[in-house]
Amino acid sequence: MPKRKDQNEEDSGSEMEIIDVDFEFFDPAEIDYHAIKRLLRQLFQVDAELLHLSELTDLILSQPLLGTTIKTDGKDSDPYAFLTVLNMNVHREHPSIKALASYFLEKSQADTALHSGLQRLLSPENLQSSSHVGLILSERLVNMPTEVVPPMYKMLGDEITWANDENEPYQFEHYIVISRLYRLSKEELEAMEEEEKNAPSSKRSKLQKKQQRKAVDSFHPEDACIKKVALHTLDYDFTNRQPRDSESFGLDTAGRLMVFPSSRFQELVTDMSATFAPP
Q1: Helix count and strand count (H, E) for the chain
Q2: Percent of the chain residues past pLDDT 70, beyond the cut
Q3: Which residues face 175 on adjacent strands?
Q4: DSSP calls for 23-90
C-alpha cells in the first residue's frame, strides 16, 4: 500500500490543461533497482562511473523501511523520484561509501573551511565514533514538481525517529546532501533576455519567470531551503567534465555539496513545507 497520495496539476504549454496525477509514496523495493540506479546516474552525471552505483543502489535497497519512492502507476511501476539517507559510519567499509567519502574530500579542497570540516567528519577515526554522518540522496525526473519534496523529507524525519526508537543506527549529528546544478553562459543569458524582449505580451509573463534563472542555478529548487540551514555549501565541477564550446548543445552541469547539522532538520522540513506548499 502507498505511504500517501498527493495530486498535481500541470500546464501543458500555451494552453492551460488541468491534469490530475496521483503521486503514490512507497518504501524502496527490489523492483526499483534499475530506476533508482538511473536516477543516481542522473544525480552524479559524468562522474557516476567513479562511484560504484550498482553497489550504492544495493545499499539503498538494503534498508527498505527508510526512504521513499514516488510512483504514479502502482507499486510495480518505476519510481519517478526517491529520497533516502545512508549512515556513512555504519557503512564506512562499503565500496560506494568509501568512494563517496574520497570524492567529497577531493571536491572540497577548493573550500578550506569545508574541507577541514569534512576531514573531521569523514576521517577513519570519526567514522568509527558515535558522531554519525547521514548521507541524503535524492533525485527525480525533471518534470516532477518540487511540491513532492517536503512530504518525502517529513516522512524521512519520522522514519529516522522511529528507527532510533528501535535502537537502529540513525542517530545523526550531521547530514551531507548532494545536488546538481547548471550554468548558463553569457550568450545563453543574453539570448533568453532577447527572447523575452521580443515575445508577445501573452507569452511574456511566462518567459519572465524563466528569466529569473541565474547564471548558476540548481535543478532542485529545495536547495535554497537547505542552504539556509547549511554550515557549508560548495558548487564543484565534475571530474569527468568535458570543456564546452560555443557550438555545444545542452546545459553545462555541475555538482553541489551541502552540510547541515541534524539539529536543524525539522526547521528545514518546516521551511520546505511553507515554501513549496501544494497549490
Answers
A1: 9, 9
A2: 80
A3: 134, 260
A4: EEEE---GGGHHHHHHHHHHHHGGGGGGS-HHHHHHHHHT-TTS-EEEESS-TTSPPSEEEEEEETTT
Specify the DSSP class assigned to residue 125: T
Higher pLDDT, 42 or 12: 42
Place of cell 567499509: 93
Other residues' Cβ atoms within 10 Å of the Cβ of residue 235: 18
- Which residue type, as a one-letter code, is found at position 210? K
Query: Which residue ranges form the domains of the chain, and what is each CATH number?
Result: 4-182+217-275 (3.40.630.30)
Beta strand 172-183 with 132-140 is parallel
pTM of the model: 0.85
Rounded Cα distance between 20 and 129, Å, is 48
Amino acid of residue 6: D
From residue 82, give the alpha-carbon distance in Å to each of 7, 195, 275.
Answer: 17, 35, 20
Tens-digit pLDDT profile for residues 121-151: 999 888 998 889 999 999 999 889 999 999 9
Query: If residue 149 lies in a helix (H) or strand (E), which one and from where to where?
Result: helix 149-165
Strands (E), 56-214: 68-71, 81-87, 132-140, 172-183
Measuring CA to CA, how many Å separate 128 from each of 88, 93, 96, 131? 10, 11, 17, 8
Strand partners, 119: none
DSSP state of 215: S
**Dist. CA 176–CA 259, nearest whole Å:** 5
Can you tell me which residue has the cell 496521483?
22
